Amino acid sequence: MESKTAVTALGALAHATRLEIFRLLVRAGAAGLSVGKIAEALAIEANGRLSFHLKELVAAGLAVARQEGRFIYYSTDYAAMNELLRYLTEDCCGGQPCGEAVDLCHPEICP
């Protein structure tokens, strides 16, 4: 991963609402959630502000959107998430053990 890509992803997550949305999408799994379900889960209105935050996550490569009928569903791009986590931890402790390892989302569980 290039540092520019990491900065873009981290910048998207550097907002309380987007971070909360991203964490919600991670928990939702590959099926994702509709905009209405995201708004309901976060107790916010499904309006332009929510759409803005979702588009920022998509633009940063952390989420994907798909349309099914009249509804738009958003889900985590687990490959991008794992790539970001690897980038952030690839040189952890200079290669020396430094505590518990964090397992990345397994591809069979999080496609």
TrEMBL record:
Transmembrane segments: none
Keyword Transcription among UniProt keywords: yes
CDD domains: HTH_ARSR
Record's keyword terms, sorted: DNA-binding, Transcription, Transcription regulation
SUPFAM superfamilies assigned to the protein according to its UniProt record, in alphabetical order: Winged helix' DNA-binding domain (SSF46785)
Keyword Nuclease (UniProt): no
Pfam families, A to Z: HTH_20
UniProt domain HTH arsR-type: residue ranges: 1-96
MF (Gene Ontology): DNA binding; DNA-binding transcription factor activity
Entry protein name: ArsR family transcriptional regulator
Organism: Dechloromonas denitrificans
Top-level taxonomy: Bacteria, Pseudomonadati, Pseudomonadota, Betaproteobacteria, Rhodocyclales
